[in-house]
Amino acid sequence: MIYASFRIEWPGFSLDVDEQLPARGVTALFGHSGSGKTTLLRCIAGLEHAATGRLSVNGDVWQDSDSWVPTHRRPIGYVFQEASLFAHLTVLGNLRYGQKRSRSADRRAAQFSLEHAVELLGIGHLLQRRPAALSGGERQRVGMARALAVTPKLLLMDEPLAALDLARKQEILPYLERLHDDLDIPVLYVSHAPDEVARLADHLVVMDGGRVQASGALNDTLARLDLPIRLGEDAGVVLDGHVAERDERWHLLRVACCNTSLWVRDTGAKLGDHARIRILARDVSIAHEPKEGTSILNTLPAQVVSLGDDAHPALCLVRLAVDDKPVISRVTRRSADQLGLAPRQQVWIQIKAVALL
Ligand SMILES: Nc1ncnc2c1ncn2[C@@H]1O[C@H](COP(=O)(O)OP(=O)(O)OP(=O)(O)O)[C@@H](O)[C@H]1O
């Protein structure tokens, strides 16, 4: 468990956070620009000396009222928006330089970690190059490998994809997923991109005005209708399941989540693979009866849980339960009224698009 409690007062901004975060998986710190995500990460790294508070990571106290472990002695890997690599060193030289500050007394473990990091980030063929000869995406992968090569107990990533174009992002995301699947250390991942959060995170912390507004498992937190941050067109949920069936003829996969199945486009995933799917609220419509004669593949029975406001007064958000899984629908208030939508009502939902992440 990571226990983080910090208070900072600056003119025009204050941070007041008191959170317990999971010691495994990826926790996304999500929020508007200026909400305090980077400041919180810097507090955890020991880079904000103004912070009073307490921080412990899996029982090790890094900061409390009597002690302060300086940044260079904290076993953290830090990945920034842009990897600042030493231009005069090769990629390997950069990785080794980073490793020198590793606290690991065990050199063999450190060596393994470097090899592991190189393999995980797929940069073996780049080791003798200098940073000037790397693409933006490659540089960022080297930056991530450098962060891992210090055998960290906590990985801090501050918008690692923000400086990259869409194609480079798509190139790096699979590596981030590998980190997620392979690493046993917790990752705190700052982002204001809902698609990245949906794809990578297990746990979501929503920040606003220096405070934590919501925190919890990704699926549950995304399904909250009272989030202070309106996700707009990105409002929706993610569901985790596995690939249960392949329809060769129509190039579709059936993803099973508990007792529910959804058809998605065949991405080449293997039967039995873990599958995370994203359903946007705008793609979910509601009806009293299952519709005949429609092009929509995914029609499911659901129960209305609650209704909430949307940003525009013509619209509302409806939280539904499909089995025990949350789904959100965005409909007009007029439709909600005509359908008489109310908590516990049984309805059918049609899902126009389901994305396999
Ligand atoms: N050293 C400082 N002194 C005073 N104010 C600061 C300092 N550092 C940051 N701030 C302010 O604190 C607020 C939070 O900044 P922070 O960088 O943590 O936000 P963020 O959520 O990470 O934003 P972004 O997504 O744009 O990176 C901002 O208003 C910023 O101007």
From TrEMBL:
* Span of the signal peptide: none
Source species, domain of life:
Bacteria
Q: Which Gene3D superfamilies match?
A: 2.40.50.100, P-loop containing nucleotide triphosphate hydrolases
**What Pfam families does this protein's entry cite?**
ABC_tran (PF00005), TOBE (PF03459)
Q: Name one GO molecular function term.
A: ATP binding
The record places domain Mop at 293-357
- Keyword Cell inner membrane found: yes
What PROSITE patterns would the database entry show?
A: ABC_TRANSPORTER_1, ABC_TRANSPORTER_2, MOP
Report domain ABC transporter positions.
Answer: 1-234
| The entry's keywords | ATP-binding, Cell inner membrane, Cell membrane, Membrane, Molybdenum, Nucleotide-binding, Translocase, Transport
Read off the InterPro entries from this record.
AAA+_ATPase (IPR003593), ABC_transporter-like_ATP-bd (IPR003439), ABC_transporter-like_CS (IPR017871), Mo/tungstate-bd_C_term_dom (IPR008995), ModC_ABC_ATP-bd (IPR011868), Molybdenum_import_ModC (IPR050334), Mop_domain (IPR004606), P-loop_NTPase (IPR027417)
Entry protein name? Molybdenum ABC transporter ATP-binding protein
- The record lists the organism as Thiohalocapsa halophila
Q: Which gene encodes it?
A: modC
